[in-house]
């Protein structure tokens, strides 16, 4: 359990070591939040779809943060340009993982619309109607169904990607092995990983409560860097990792 605080501390350390690069990615997360808020105001029934899309895009934006932490860990000096294109040597594996997550995102969005359609068969509610529905105890069936659907897909996305993306960056592992390893990490350390997921959720929620969601500018990079250290703490390799993506070694202990 103590590793959770250590991951966050190391993430904050990486942010202070390379603030300009980290803040750039933080601004990207902030823009995503603004888009999500605008969709909620105009088309609330598509909020879950856009949220799942952001959850899909977020880890790949964080890929640049993983690259910064990886270089910092090995005493190298990262650059913004190299962090933006660090996915290129791993395009095949990343593409396969993206395909899987896109399918989950589409299913998640469709399932959320079905929940709305079942409980609001007279038509989609307005923005005010959605807020009233979510926070109205009389609609507990809707709240339970909406939470269960969203929670199931969120947990599945989290379990498949919590260490998969940094693992592909670190070792150029194929997408299937990375996803299986990610599931093994979650299942073998269930309580710790549940708390890690809850910690991410709480910190993001607090960041969104800041004026204009500005808290994401700092919280986003810290969580991105911390996710790299979560991978390094959860997956142990037989030998030191290679920095050269052209010569990977894929033998997890």
Describe this structure in words.
With 253 residues, this protein is an all-alpha fold. The chain has one domain. Helix content is 76%, strand content 0%. The chain is built from 11 helices and no strands. The chain has helices spanning 2-17, 19-42, 47-73, 80-84, 91-119, 127-135, 140-161, 164-171, 175-188, 190-209, 216-234. Helix 1 crosses helix 2 (19-42). The longest helix is centred in the middle third of the chain and has 29 residues, at 91-119. The chain starts with a helix and ends in a 19-residue tail after the last helix.
Sequence-ordered SSE layout with sheet pairings:
Layout: H1 2-17, H2 19-42, H3 47-73, H4 80-84, H5 91-119, H6 127-135, H7 140-161, H8 164-171, H9 175-188, H10 190-209, H11 216-234
Helix pairs in contact: 1-2, 1-11, 2-3, 2-11, 3-5, 3-7, 3-8, 3-11, 5-7, 8-9, 9-10, 10-11
| N-C termini distance | 21 Å
Class from secondary-structure proportions: mainly alpha
Strand proportion, as a percent range, falls in under 5%
Order of helices and strands: HHHHHHHHHHH
Overall pLDDT confidence: 83
- DSSP, total strands: 0
Number of domains: 1
Global geometry: globular
Task: Describe what is shown at a glance.
With 253 residues, this protein is mostly helical. The protein is 76% helix and 0% strand.
Keywords summarizing the entry:
253 residues, disordered C terminus
């Amino acid at each position: 359990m103590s590793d959770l605080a250590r991951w966050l501390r190391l993430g904050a350390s990486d942010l202070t070591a390379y603030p300009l690069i980290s803040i750039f990615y933080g601004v990207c997360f902030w823009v995503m939040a603004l888009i999500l808020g605008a969709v909620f105001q105009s088309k609330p029934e598509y909020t879950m779809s856009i949220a799942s899309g952001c959850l899909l895009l977020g880890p790949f934006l964080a890929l640049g943060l993983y690259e910064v932490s990886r270089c910092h860990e090995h005493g190298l000096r990262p650059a913004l340009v190299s962090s933006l294109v660090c996915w290129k040597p791993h395009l095949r594996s990343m593409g396969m993982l993206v395909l899987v997550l896109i399918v989950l995102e589409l299913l998640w969005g469709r399932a959320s619309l079905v929940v709305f359609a079942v409980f609001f068969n007279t038509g989609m509610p307005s923005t005010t109607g959605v807020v009233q529905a979510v926070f109205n105890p009389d609609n507990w069936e809707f709240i339970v169904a909406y939470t269960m659907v969203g929670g199931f897909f969120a947990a599945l996305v989290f379990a498949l990607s919590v260490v998969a993306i940094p693992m592909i960056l670190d070792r150029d592992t194929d997408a299937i092995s990375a996803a299986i390893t990610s599931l093994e990490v979650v299942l073998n350390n269930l309580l710790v990983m549940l708390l890690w997921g809850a910690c991410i959720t709480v910190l993001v929620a607090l960041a969104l409560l800041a004026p204009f969601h500005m808290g994401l500018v700092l919280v986003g990079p810290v969580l991105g860097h911390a996710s790299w250290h979560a991978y390094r703490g959860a997956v142990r390799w037989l030998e030191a990792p290679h920095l050269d993506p052209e010569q990977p070694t894929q033998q997890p202990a």
